[in-house]
User: Fold these one by one.
Assistant:
Number 1:
Amino acid sequence: MHAYRTHTCAALTSDNVGDTVRLSGWVHRIRDHGGILFIDLRDHYGMTQVLCDPDSAAFSEVEKLRSEWCIRIDGEVKARAPELVNPKLPTGEIEVFVRGVEVLGASKELPLQVFGDQEYPEETRLKYRYLDLRREQMQANMTLRSDVVRSIRQRMWDQNFREYQTPIITASSPEGARDFLVPSRLHPGKFYALPQAPQQFKQLLMVSGFDKYFQIAPCFRDEDPRADRSPTDFYQLDMEMSFVEQQDVFDTIQPVMAGVFEEFGGGRKVDQEWPLISYKDAALWYGTDKPDLRNPIKMQDVSEHFKGSGFAIFAKLLEQEGTEIRAIPAPTGGSRKFCDRMNAFAQKEGLPGMGYIFWRDQGNGMEAAGPLAKNIGPERTEAIREQLGLGVGDAAFFLGGKPEAFERVAGRARVVIGEELGLTETDRFAFAWIVDFPMYEKDDEGRIDFSHNPFSMPQGGMEALQGDPMKVLGYQYDLACNGYELISGAIRNHKPEIMFKAFELAGYGEDEVRKRFGGMVNAFQYGAPPHGGCAAGIDRMVMLLADEANIREVILFPMNQRAEDLMMDAPSEPSNEQLRELRLRVLPPES
C-alpha cells in the first residue's frame, strides 16, 4: 500500500464499498454524535466523511485530533444508509470506518478558521495566507486561475503562436508607472530594472522575424494599489504579430478571450458582438474609457437646450469656452425620492449637486417636474425629453462645466443609476474595443506628454505629426469588459524617423531617445516589419470570472494595500554587508 494514500478524498464511490483504503488530508471538522466521532477529511480534491466508534482500536487517537491537523487514516469503505446519502458530495454515498490513524502534522491553535464562511481582517488573511488558501473559495479561485492560464496557452498555440520568454532583469523604460530598480554589484552606481512589460523585447522579436509571439508574462510596476490592481507585480497574456493592422489583432485575440469567458463564465452570457467605440465617444457617453455596457444608459450633450435659458447657472457656464452640459438619462427613475438620493450622491463626490428633471403623469397628460423644468420652461424641457427618448416615470440628471472636471463623476453617477434602478445586467460579460486614443495630453503646467503608449504608430504617420499634437490620434486600443480594462495594445511605430518626431513633440530629443531606447531604435534601422499586439491582464480576467471584487482574491500571495508582504515580512532592511557589496548607502526616512 502507498505510504500516504490509495485514493484522494474525492475519489471513493459506492463501487469501493468493502475496500480497505488509505487517505491523507486535513481534519476539516469533527462532530461527536453520541460517542461516535465523525470527521470530514479534506484534501485538494474534495472531502470524505470518516468515522470512528469506541470499538475501534484507533478511537483513543482519533479523540485527540483537532481542526486542521494533517493526518493519514486506514479504514474500510462502507455504504451510507439511503437517508444519509449526501448528494452534494462526490463521495456522499460512502463513509470510511477508521481502523488506524497517524498524525502527519499537528496544528497549533488556528488564527483563522478554514471551515465555514467567517470574515477575517485582511491583515490576518495575508499574514496567514497558507491557511487562508486552504479555504474552499480560495482553492476554487486558484484552481480557476490555473485552468484559465492553461486554456489561454492552448488557444494561442491553436492560432500558430509560439511562447517565448523575455528577460526579467533589463533596462528602465517608461511604461506609464514607476520602475522597480535593481542595483548592480558588478557595476557600482548602475541599476537594472524589473520590466513593467516585455514591450521592447516583443517588438525586437518581430524585427528578429518570429512573426507570432506570446507569453504569460510577469510584469513589475511600483504603483499605488487599487481593488483591481496589484501594487507590485501582475501577469498578462502578452502577444505580438508582424504584418498586421489593427483589425487583425482584434480578429486574433477576440476568439481567445471569448472562448475563455465562455469556458469559465459559469453560464453567464458572453457578448459576441464587440463594438468599436472611439475614446472621444466613450468619454461622452459613459464618462470613462472602461465602460460597462451591461448598463444601457448613454449620456448625451444637451448644451443647446440651456444656452440663454432661464437656468442662470448653466446659461452663464456655457458662455465660457470649452464648457458643456451633459444629461444622464434615468429610465424608471422618475420620483423625487430617487432624484434627491442622486443629488446626495453628487454632493458626496464633491459637487454642489446635480440638476434633474423627472416626468410624471398628471391625469390629463405628462408633466415635467423639478427645479430645472421650472427654470427653462416647457418647450426646452420637452426638447430634452425627446432627445433622450424618455417618458412618464423617467428622469434625467445634469452636470455642467469643462468635461475633464465632471466627466468621471458623471461616469460614476451613470453606474450608480444603472445599479439602483436595476438596469444593469448581472449575468453577462459585455465587451467593447475603445479605439482612437489621443497620442498626447497636457499636464497641469501645459507641457505635452504621451497620453498612452509612447511606441504607438500615429494615425496618418509623419504627416499627422506636423500639425497640432493634441489632435493626433494613435493606433491604440483597449478592450473593456464590465467596467474594467482587460486589454491594452497598439500598432507599433516601427519607423525611426516617425519615432524621433513623436518623441520630440513630447519633449524628448533624438539623443535621449537613442540613449533610452537604443536597442530598439537601432534594430528598426535594419528592416523592421509593421507589427502590433496587445496584452491582457490575467489577474483581472480571473477576478471577473470568479465574480470577485478584489484582485487579491485571485492572487496566491498578494501584497496588502501598503505594498507589504505580511507573511514574508517584505520589504525588509538590507544588511550592512549587502549595502557595502552594492556600494549603496540608505538615507534615513524624512521626518
Note: The first helix runs from residue 59 to 62.
Number 2:
Amino acid sequence: MIGTAEELMGSSSGMRAQIVWFSLAGVAQGGVFAALLPLLRALLSGDSAGALPWLGLAAGCAVVSAALLWHAADTGYVVGIERMADRLARRIGEHVVRLPLGWFTAGRAGRLARLTSTSVQDVMGIPSTLLQQIVMAIATPVTVIVVTLFVDWRMGLAFVVTAPVALAAFAWVSRVLRDTQGPEDRMHAEVTDRVVEFAQAQQVLRAAGRTEEGWATLDRALAEHRDAYLHKLDRGGRPFGVYVLVVEAGFAAVMILGTYLALGGTLRVPDAVAVLILAARFVEPLIQAGDLGGTFRVARIALDAIGEVLHAKPLPTVSNGPVPADATVELDDVTFGYGERPVLSGLTLRCPPGTVTALVGPSGAGKTTVTRLVARFWDVDSGAVRIGGVDVRELPTADLMARLALVFQDVYLFDGTIEENVRLGRPGATDAEVRRAAEAARLDEVVARLGWDTKVGEGGSRLSGGERQRVSIARALLKDAPIVLLDEATAALDAENEAAVGAAVAELARDRTVLVIAHRLSTVAAADQIAVLDGGRIAELGTHAELLARGGRYARFWNERQRAAGWRLAAT
C-alpha cells in the first residue's frame, strides 16, 4: 500500500518512518509486560524493595510508549494531511487539467467529486490511524512471544504455533472482504448518483406526475445497495467469526498449558500468572487486527480510485509549435469513433477564415463530434484537424484554446456573480470591455434587471436558459478568439430570448471563423457555406441557393423545416 501511495504521490510519503515509530512504541509497550515477571516474583516472595526497580522499569516503558505513540500519531496527522492528502489533491488537479475534454463525462465528473472528497479523506487516515493499528497489532504480540520464550520455552512455543494460524485466518478474512467490498462500494456510488439525480429532477418528475416512478428508481438503487451491504456482512461475518474462534482457541490452549505446567510444578506460580497476563495481551491486538481488514480494504479501494484517474492518459502535448497562418479550420479525411463503429468516416471540410459554416443533418450524423474534434476533445483515429494549416496535435494546448471560443448547448456557469462568469473569458479585461461584451451579447438587458453582482447559482440554475446563453456568448465575445465553435441551441427559448440570442450570435460571428451547428433557419440560410452531414461524411456542401437548386438532401431538409415553421396549436 505504501508503494502504491508513493507512486501516486510522486514523492516519499513518510509512512516508513511512521512504521518505525509505531514499532518502537509497540516494543516499549511490550517492555511493560516484560517487567511484569520479575515484578511478580519479587512481590510474591515478599521482596518489596526488589520490586521497586521493576516497577520503575514498567512505568518508564509505559511513559516511553505513550510518548512515542503521541509523537507518531501527531506526525501521522502531518503526513496524512500536509503530505498525502495535499499532494494527492494537487496531483489530481494537475493531471485532470491535462486530460482531454472528452474524458469529462457526467459519470466521471461525479466520480471525480467523490474522489477529491471521500477517497482522499480515506487515504489521509492511513499514516495516523491505520498504520498505528496494524503495526501495534504486530509489534506487541511479537514482543510478548519473545518475552515468554525467556520465561518458559514451552509456553513461548505455544504462542509461536498460534501466531501463524491466526495470521492465516486473518489473510482469509482480508480476501473475503476484498471480494465483497468492491461491489458494495460500487452500489454506494450508484445510490449517491441516484439521490442527486432524484433531487435535481424534482421539477421534471412533478410536472410529469411521475414522482412515484422517480422514487422507484432510487428505491431500487437503495435496495440493491442494502443487498450488497448485507451480502458483505454475511460473507465477511463468518470468516471473522472463525478468525476470532482461532485466536480465542489459541488463548485457551495457552491457558490450559500454563495451568497444567503450574500444577505439575514445572512452572512457578509467579511465572504462570505472568504468562497468562501476557497471553491476554497477546490476544487483544490480534482480535483488533481482524477489524482492520475492512478499513484496510477501504483505503486500498480509495488508492485504486485515485490511481484510475492519475493513470488516465492525457493527450500528447507539445511545449512549442508552429504558429497558424490564419483562422482557417480544416478537417482532412477524418475518421473517428467512440467505440468500434466510427461516427465520422473520411470526412473532409474546409472553413475559410472569416466565414460561417453551418452544420446540418439528422441526429447522430456527427455534427457535435466535428466541433469537438476541432477543440481537441479527442484525437482523430485517422486523418487530421488543422487550424491555419497546423495540425491541432502540434499546437500547445494553451495556444489552441486561446484561438477558440466555445458556446455549446449545455451552458455551465460557476456559482458566482454574472460579472465573474463573463470575466472568465478574459480575466484581465477592463470594466469597459466587459460592458461592451455584455451589450453585444444582449446581456445588458439581464444585468439592468438583476445587477452585475447577482449570484447565478450552481450551474447557472438561477437564470433562465436564454439568460445563461447570453452570459456564455458575452464570455466568448470578451475572449475575442478568432474561431468560434457554436451550438446554436435556441429551440427551447421563448421568442424574446430567441431574438436576443440570435442577435448576439450574429455579433459573435462577425469577422470570425464560425463553425455552427445550426437550428434556426435564418442562420442556415445566411451561412457562407452549409455542410450537410450524413453517415459520417459530408453529403452536400455549398451555399443555401446552390443546395436548394440541387434538390437533394438539403432541399428536402429545408422544405420540411419550412412546413414545420408554419405549424400552429389550435383548439377544436
Note: The first strand starts at residue 329 and ends at 336.
Number 3:
Amino acid sequence: MKKVARLFLVLILLLATGFVRVSAEEALPPRLQKLADEAYHYYSSRGTDNFFEAVQKVKDATEFSEYQETYYRACAYEAIYMFEYVDRQKGVALSHAIYHHAKEDKSNVGMYFATFTLGTIREQSGNYGLAEKSFLQALELKKKYLPDESAAPCYLGLCEVALHRKDYEAVKEYARLALDEPKAIPMNQITAWSYKCLARYNEGDSLGFEEAYKERAQLMSEHGGQGGLFGELINVYLAKNRKQWQVALQRTDKLIHQQNRCSQKASIYEHMGDLKQALYWQKQARQVIDSIQSSEARLQMNEFDAELTLTYAENDIKEQQLAKEHLMLASGAAIAAIIITFLGFIAVRRKKHMKTLQGVNSKLQAAYDQLEETTKAKERIESELRIAREIQKRMLPHVFPRRRDVDLYAMMTPAKEVGGDLYAYALIDDMLYFCVGDVSGKGVPAALFMAEVTRMFRTLVDGKLTPGTIATRLNHALAEDNEQGMFVTMFIGLINLKTGHMEYCNAGHNPPLLDGEYMKMESNAPIGLWSEVEFEGEEVDDMHGKTLFVYTDGISEAENVNKEQFGDERLQALLKQDLGDARQTSETIHKAVADFVGDAEPSDDLTKMCIIMK
C-alpha cells in the first residue's frame, strides 16, 4: 500500500471518539442514547440529510444539559462530516463554532474537541505537520482537564500522520498507546489493530500482519464484528498478504470510496503482472483525486502518460518484429517443394504486418508529439514560476538594520519554485515591528496567500497597532470569504528599542527561542480560520542583551533520507552556542539543516529570523 486514503481516517477517528458513549459523564438516558445511536448509524451509512437531522437532535438535547461532552462530540461529528463530504467552507465554519462556543462557555471539554476537530480537518487537507501539532495539543488538554477522557482518538490521528510519512515504527507505537488507554472503546481497539496491520504489511512482515489481523478479528467477534469501512480495507490487504489476487479484487468492489477502490485495483493488477489493467485503474484513480492540484503535479501526470504510451508503442513494434522473424525462420525451414506455394501467403502476411507497423509508427509519432508538447508546456510553466519566484523574493526584505541597539537578519528558502513562508519588518522611529509566518499548503496558492498576508501586515503596521490587534484584524480580513480554508500561523512582535520592552502575539506558530530556550506562551489559533477570534498579546519586559530566533516548522521538521527529522533539540543545542551576529546565526542554522537533509527532497519552506538586542 502506498498510503491509506484520507477519507477513511475521517470515519475511523469519529467512530473512535465514541459518539455513543460518555466517559466523565454518567450513562446517557435511554432517549438520548437512542438519538446518539441513530446519528452514529447515519454517519456510518453516509445518509447525509438524516445524519444532520439526527445530530441536530442530539445537540438540541444536550447543549444546555449536564451532558456537555456528548454535545461537543456531536459538534465535532457534524463539522468533520460537513468538511469532508459536503462543503469545506461550511465545515471550517462549524469547527469555528465549536471553538467560539467553548470559549464563551470557558469549557475545557469544548476546547479539547475544537482542537481535535481542527487536527482532523488539517489532516484531511494534507497539512500533516499542523495536524500532528493539533493532535498533540489535544492530548495536552485531555491530560490537564479531562483525565477520564480516552486519549485513543488522538493517538489514532497520530497513527494516520505517521502512516502518511511512512514511519511505521511510529504507527505501531501510537497504536500501542491507543490500546493501552484504559477506557478505549472496542472501536478504538479495532482501529488500533487495523493500523498495526497496515504498518506490518508495508514493512513486508507477512507473519506480523497475520498476527495483528487475528487479534483484530478476535475483537470484532467479541463486539459484534463491526469493522466499518476500515474493516473492508483490511480484508483487501488480508487477501493481498496471502497473494489471493482474485479474492482481493472481489473485495475491492465493496469499498465505498472510488479513489481507494481504483488505487487498490491498480495495485492488485500490478502484482498480477497485468500492467495494462494496472495503468487503466491508476488513471481512474487519478480522475477522482481532488481537483485542486498544482500545475506541476498535472504536468508530471501528463509526462507519465506520455512515457507509458511511448513504452507500449515501442513494445508493440518489438512484438511485431519478433513475429516477423519467427515467420521467416519457419518459412526458411520449410520443404523446398512447397516454398513457391507459400510465397503468396508470406507476401500477404508481410503486407499485413507492414500495415500494422505503420499504425504502430503513427502511434509512436503521436506519443513523441505529445511528449514534445508536454516538454514545451513544462518549460513555459517553469519560466513563469521562475518569474513568480523573483517577484516573491522582491517582496521579502533583503536589507536589514544593523544599529548600535539592534541587529536583525532573516532568510527564506522555498521548497518549490515559490513558497508559502513569509517574514517582514518595519522600523518606525524606535519601534521595531516584525513577523514570521507559515501559510498552509505549498506552491502557487500558498504564495498568493503569503503575498496578501505580507501586504496587509505592512498596512496594519503603519497604524502603530499592537501585535494582538494586528493578528485580530488580519484574521478578520483573511477569514472572510475564505472558501479554500487556507490559514497562516504567525509570530508577530513589537520591540521598543529604547526600553527593550517587547509585545508579541503567537498565532498558532512554533514558539521562538529566546537565548536558546523555547518561549512559553499562548498558542492562540492560526489566522484565517475563524473570523471572530480575538487574539491575545503577551510581553517580555526587557530584551536588552538577548537573542530572539523565530522560525517556521520547515526547520525542525526537515527530514534526511532516513526520514529522521532535524528536531527541536538539535535546533536548541545550536542556539545555546555563540554563533556570531544575526546573519551568521541564521546562516549557521541554515547550513546545519542543509547538511542534515543531504540528498533528501526538501519537504517544506525554510524560514528563519534572528534579532539580537544590544
Note: The longest strand covers residues 431-439.
Number 4:
Amino acid sequence: MKENIILNVKNLCVDFSLEKGKLRAVENVSFSLNKGETLGIVGESGSGKSVSALSIMKLISYPGKICSGKINFKNNDRWIDLVSLKESELREYRGKKIAMIFQEPMTSLNPVYSCGKQIAEAIMLHQNVSKKEAKQKTIRLLKEVSLARPELVYKRFPHQLSGGQKQRVMIAMALSCRPDILIADEPSTALDVTVQKSILELLKSLQQKYKMSIIFITHDLGVIAEIADRVTVMHKGKIVEEGSIKNVFLSPQHSYTKGLIACRPALDRNQSKLLTISDFINARSEKSISTLIKSVTTKNKESIEQLKRKYASGEPILKIENLSTYFPIKKPLFKKEREWIKAVDGVSFDVYPSETLGLVGESGCGKTTLGRSIIRLIEPTSGWVFYKNKNITSYSKAQLRELRKEFQIIFQDPYSSLNPRKTVGNAILEPMQVYNLFDNEKIRKEKSVELLEKVQLEAGHFNRYPHELSGGQRQRVCIARALSLNPKFIICDESVSALDVSVQAHVLNLLSELKEEFLFTYIFISHDLSVVKHMSDRMAIMNNGQFIEIGDTEKIYNNPVQEYTKRLIDAVPKGFIQTIFTLITFICS
C-alpha cells in the first residue's frame, strides 16, 4: 500500500437479514483515503453510502452484518484490519482514532445531559484527565468550533440550541480526541444555506489545523464540490464512478452521475422542468439526452401584470395587512411588562391567482409562523388576512372549518404529518369523510386511488402504512391528501428540504404540473434559494419577522438590494452551477 494512504477499504459487502431473505446493501465496495485528504461519497438515500461509512467503525447492528471484505487502518505505521477486531479492541479506535458526525444531531445527543457534559465524558473516556480538566478542554473546543459564549453552551441541553449550534457541538465532540479520520455523514443536509456554508468552512479550517482526513457523505454534488478533493459515486450499493472532483464534474462518465449533477435547480438559468436521474438512466443515447436538456433549459415565467390580465378582476386572491404574531416569554420576576418574541412583525403583501410566491430566509426568521398564521393554525396577534376580499381573521371556528377546504398546507416532515396507524389510503380518505364529499365510500376510495396515481404512486400503495414508503413517496401522499378537498390555495412549508436532490426534482416537477393543471396558487416556503427561484414568480426575503425585500424572482436574484439577501445568495454552493453548464456544453457539443 502507498505510504500516504491511511485507510483502505477492500471488497466490502454488507447484508441485511429480512423476512424473505437477505438484502445486499453494499456490494464489493473498495476505496482508499489519503492523509489530510477529503473524500466525498455521494449518492441517493439507499445507495449504501452511510452503511459503508458505518462499517468502517463497525457500527452496523443487527439485522445488518459485514459479510466479507477488509477495512485496513494505518495506526502508527502498522496496518490494522478493523473488521477482524473484537468489540473491546474497537474501543481503542472509535472516537479516538476515527470519529463520526451524524446527520441528525438532535437524535445523536442525549437529551437528559447538558451538551458540555457529553463532550467531557468522551474526553475522560479516552484521556487520563480529571473532571475539571475535561471541562476546561470542552470549553476550549466549544470556542474552537465558533460557538458564542461557550461557558453558557456547556450548561445548555440539546433542545435549547439551534440546529447549527447542535451540529457544532457534535463537531466539537468528534474532535475532542484529535482523531486521524473524521467521518461526516450528511452533516449539513437539513441546515440553512448560510449555516451550511459556515459548517463547511469550519470543517475545512479544522482539517488544515489538525491534518485530519475526512470522509464526507452527502447526496448533494454541489456541497461535495465545495469541500472534497476526490469523489466516489454510489448507486444501489455499488461504486459507479470515482475520481478527482475536476474529472468527475467536467467529464462524468456514468449516466447516474450525470443525472445526479443535473437534477439540482440551477441559479443561472430558468428551466421548464427539472431533469431527474431516471431521465438519464432511461435515455438510449447521448443524442436523446442532448434533446432532453435543450427542451428544459428555458422557462418564461409570467409577470404579475400578465397574471392580472389573465384573470378577470386583476384582484389579489390573498391580501395580508400588518400581520403580526408574537409569542410571550416568561415574565421576569421584577419586571412589570412581559417580553415577547416577534416571530412575525407587521408584514403586508398580496398574492395573485395562480401565482407562486416564494418565502425565503434562515431558520427562525418567521416564515413558517407566517404561513400558519395566514390560515390561522396559529392565531395572529394583530393585523388582517383577506381571502377573496373577505376578512378571515374575524371568522368563527365553524366558518374557518368550511374555508379550510380551499386552504391546504404541505408540511416539511411527511412522516410526522401522517398518522402511523392509518394506511395511506385512509389518510387521503379522511378529509373527504370529514367534509362529507361524494356520495359514498366507494366513490371516495376511487377518488383516493385516482389521487395516488395523479402524484405518480400506484393503486397498490392504498393499503400501505407510512413506514413502508420512502421519504419521497410519503411526501407524495401528503400532496395527494392536500388535493383531496380540491383546494385553491396551497402553502408548501419546506416540503422538499429533507429530500434527496433527485427525489426533490420529482416532487418539484409534480407541484409545477399540478399548478398548471388545477391553476393552484402557492406560497412556497424554503431556506433553499435555488429551489425558491425555480418555483416562484415572485420572491419575498424574510428576516427577524419582517419582509426586507420582495419582488420579481429574477430581479432579486440578479440585483439584490439588501446585504442579507446578498449573503443568502452567496451562501448557496456554486459548484453545481458551473457543473450543470459544463455538462450541458459537454453533451450538446
Note: Residues 584-589 have pLDDT under 50 and may be disordered.
